[in-house]
Amino acid sequence: GDGPLLPNVVRLCGELNISVQQYSGYWNEQLDPEAAIIFMGYQTNPYPFIANASVFVLPSLWEGLPISVLEAMSLGRPVIVSNCSSAIFELLTDQESVKDQSELNCRITTGCGLVMNRFNLNDGPGVIEEWTDGMATIIDDHEYRKSCAVVARGMACRYDVTEVNKLWVAR
After folding, report:
1. pTM, rounded to two decimals
2. Residue 105, pLDDT score
């Protein structure tokens, strides 16, 4: 998006020698094929971008029920998300919460992707390395990525309005 942290993230990319492009939104603007990251800004329809991504990454510090994760899962994208909400575990697993709270401080592999430590720019290079390693894991392992896509679609179906209505009517 175009949030207040965008300049900090762009600066961090520069410090890490990651090539970036900030898309202006003009219809005739060419995307830089050499850019490792393209900041697209606010988009009214993000689905084409999500559908063409290899993986969906949500490094939020706080979320309630992250609808963007459900949207990515419904499009068959593996997800890498921070442990920013107890809802994350319900979305990505069959359990409503992590039984062993010590698991919150490590990477958790699920059928849909990865749950990571919260990402904070002040945490230094260690957490950045954990996240880049997690992204590389999914991007480099084609079979795991394909498996995550299938599981993610199935898990997202649990939140389809028809399925949710059945649960409400049954009560």
Report:
1. 0.76
2. 60
